[in-house]
Amino acid sequence: MKKIKKVLSLLVISSMVVASFAACGTKKSGETFTIGGIGPITGDAAVYGINVKNGAEIAVKEINAAGGINGAQIVFKFEDDVADGEKAVNAYNTLKDAGMHMLMGTVTSGACASVMEETNVDNMFQLTPSASSTDVLKNGNVYQVCFTDPNLGITSAQYIAGKGLAKKIAIIYDSSDIYSSGIEAAFKVEAGNQGLEIVAEEAFTADSNSDFSVQLQKAKDSGAELVFLPIYYTQATLILSQAAAIDYKPIFLGCDGLDGILTVENFDTSLAEGVVLMTPFSAESTDEKTASFVKAYQSAYNNETPNQFAADAYDAIYIIKAAAEKAGIKPDMSVSEIGTAMKEAIQQISYDGLTGAQMTWAATGEVNKQPRAYKIEGGKYVSAE
Amino acid sequence: MTRLKALNKSTRNNIIVLGIILVIYVICRILMAAGAMSNLMQGLLVPLCYYSILAISLNLTVGILGELSLGHAGFMCIGAFMGAFFTKCTENSISNVFIRYGIAMLLGAVCAALFGGLIGVVVLRLRGDYLAIVTLAFGEIVKNIINALYVGIDNKGLHISLQDAAALKLAEGGEVIVNGAKGITGTSRDTTFTVAILMLILVYFIIVNLINSRSGRAIMAIRDNRIAAESVGIDITRFKLLAFTISAAMAGIAGVLYSHNISSLVATPKNFGYNMSIMILVFVVLGGVGNIRGSIVAAVILTLLPEYLRFLADYRMLIYAVVLIVMMIFNWNPACIAWRKNHPIKGVLQSVIKKKEGSASGKEGGKAS
Question: CA-CA to B104 of 20 to 30 Å: which in A200, A262, A327, B303?
């Protein structure tokens, strides 16, 4: 009898499962564009996903108020992927069920590498705001708003050599992170070309990212004048406070991952004085476009200051709009038709956004724009060009 | 006579479970052919299979052998990387997908088994909490080594480095296959729903046969009373190792399915860290320790649940956790078990039917179960 009960419950469950997936079919409306977004809004990397989501929503609101794309309103749907490839594919499929026309995502590189295979099969247009790995360019169907990791490493090394900031350089990076190790590898090669000497190269992993005293001591002992930090700001705050504790005061230079360092709770921002960032966006900038974006963001989201990810996403939506207008697409076209038309159009446009002027795209999907450098002075980002 | 009856019953039950799996498979196929299945569900079919395999395989260690292992994701990781590595290497030389994928599957399973055996020899001398801690460490070690591992191939052969991709010194035309933290990208996506279901059936078949075999009874004897088992001449180390190795091999198979389902393979704390190992353990505990069918059902429900809770947006994982707690209590709280005994599904159904017929009594059905 017990067995029968189990079999029965199994049957009930299987019928529930069948019912649950039979219930939702694909919906499609001919009047609005559905743009999907994928990124982590829970978990460790949530801050990036949330910024992307918010930044994109502001752009969508603005565009809808101004009449939409080619006369059609935009519906923006965002799904969580916890920065995991498998979950990102699930999120992608969920969005497809919701009738997505174009994808603005994913936020992280690892997840993007999984999703791009799906978009390749469907010929879905994919523009990523912040997946910066070169792996995502492999199929030629993903377009980037941000720089690639190697590009950041190369421009950082060129900046250091060009400004004559230092000769002896130490690197502290996260070897388990694609973004960090990608920048580090390219930086090392270019530093060699530029005649810079790397005296210490210290790695940490995602499992040991709270104590950096060993790495800092090594950097100090090797006499490095500049510490290159191609990492995210959460670890950078720890590095800065631990460096202060051992009275080590080199120049700290980071990439766009350090953006957001001034907004960390309980972090003494005076420690970040003099930190140089190679980032395309700063909320402190006096540029008119940036100022109005920051104002809109702050009024919509509890006075929070947007970081580079939000700006990337804001640009991404406007880039989609520009390309869509160029291509003259309509919501009743199929996903594949839109994909083909958009790919052609994006290579022909030039876009001035928050994260760069005159952005253009190659057929590989890589963006071409000018890098920018900022320095933290008096708790604010100041241009350090 | 009673033994024969018991054997028949278990065989009958296994046939029923296999039948249900096949029926679900056929239903899914029909729905897919009719275009009535959502993209989300189509994408989830393969993950459901490999999570079920993982749950079954851990149940062998936890439920049948009675040892707590927290490093199961590590074995999955080994299988995944070995399988994907082989496929990437031989993509051009072996054109037949069946042969290539078959070998990759075998290789993944064998490698995971090898590590399982290796770890087992050392670790199975420990018991209880100690074993759990050591396996936990093993899982983390595997993940971290793979994150630092660079393997490339050129016409001279394999190059391995723990430094970076440049240290491989590949000749012209060489290709970096395992690229440190970037893992393996562009693996051919050979896992289909059919293959995944076949592997699930195979794994289920192996486990059920093992449990009902002489070895299986020896393993369970060790679980129930180690000293008694030793006193009747059961070779403890051998049988423990056997179960542990088979369990690892199956996790390896799940890993190969995983790596050939998603084209980018990266060892992150999310997919191969201890969180994953705990998740697999949750499948086993929720489904019932030692209950193979329960493991499959739990794995399916807990994989589907977070995806179908997406409409809750920000509250998704919160509600997921609450549902998990409620399910755990409903399934395993003694009071709940007693309540369910008094209100069995069948009894309720019967009483409803009887009420309709005019005579109201559901007591009989309650007693029967």
Answer: B303
Q: Where does CATH 3.40.50.2300 sit in chain A? A: 32-147+289-368, 150-279
Comparing CA positions, the residue from B286, B293, B200 lying closest to residue A2 is: B293
Comparing C-alpha atoms, which of A382, A146, A149 is closest to residue A262? A382
Residue A354, C-beta contacts closer than 8 angstroms, at least 6 positions apart? A281, A287, A289, A290, A293, A311, A314, A315
Model pTM?
A: 0.85
Place of tokens 């029967």: B368
C-beta atoms of B43 and A178 within 8 A? no
Question: What distance, in Å, lies between the first and last C-alpha atoms of chain B?
Answer: 23
pLDDT at A30: 67
Peptide bond into A106 cis (omega under 30): yes
Q: Tell me the C-alpha distance between B279 and B58, whole Å.
A: 11
In angstroms, rounded to a whole number, what is the distance separating the alpha carbons of residues B215 and A94?
45
Give residue B362's pLDDT band: very low, low, confident or very high (50, 70, 90): very low
Q: How many CA atoms lie within 13 A of A165 on its CB side?
A: 27
Q: B150: part of which helix (H) or strand (E)?
A: strand B150-154
Specify the residue for token string 């486990």.
B207
A155: part of which helix (H) or strand (E)? helix A149-163
Alpha-carbon dihedral angle through residues B186, B187, B193, B196, given to the nearest 10 degrees: -150
Q: Are A116 and A126 in contact (CB under 8 A)?
A: yes
Q: Which H or E run contains A206?
A: none
* Structure ipTM over 0.90, yes or no: no
CATH architecture of A32-147+289-368: 3-Layer(aba) Sandwich (3.40)
Please report, as a single letter, which amino acid is at residue B66: G
Contact B297 A206 (CB under 8 A): no
Average pLDDT over residues A363-376: 87
Q: Which residue of B has its CA nearest to A19?
A: B37
A216 pLDDT above the threshold of 60: yes
- The distance of Cα A212 from the centroid of its chain, to the nearest Å, equals 25
Distance CA B71, CA A243 (A): 36
Torsion of CA A90, A92, A95, A96, to 10 degrees: -100
Determine contact, residues A210/A181, Cβ cutoff 8 Å: no
Which tokens is B262 given?
Answer: 């998603």
**B48, B299 in Cβ contact below 8 A?**
yes
**For chain B, what's the residue count?**
369
Domain ranges in chain B are 1-38, 45-320, 333-369
Give the CATH superfamily of A150-279. Response regulator (3.40.50.2300)
Q: What is the CA radius of gyration of chain A?
A: 23
**Residue A26: its pLDDT value, please?**
44
Sign of CA dihedral B230, B232, B236, B240: negative
State whether A17 and B344 contact (CB < 8 Å): no
Q: Among A203, A155, A40, which residue's Cα sits nearest to residue B181?
A: A203
Residues in chain A: 385
Q: Which residue, among B110, B149, B97, has the nearest Cα to B252 in the 3D structure? A: B110
CB pair distance less than 8 Å for B47 and A86: yes
Let me know how many helices (H) and strands (E) chain B has, helices first.
Answer: 16, 5
Segment among A97-106, B180-189, B229-238 with least mean pLDDT: B180-189
Q: Residue A88 and residue A80: Cα distance in Å, rounded? A: 7
Partners of A204 in the beta sheet?
Answer: A174
How many Å lie between the alpha carbon of A59 and the closest alpha carbon of chain B?
21
CA distance B105 to A163: 54
To the nearest whole angstrom, how far is the Cα of A326 from the nearest Cα of chain B?
30
Among candidates B113, B130, B115, B111, which has minimal Cα distance to B67?
A: B130
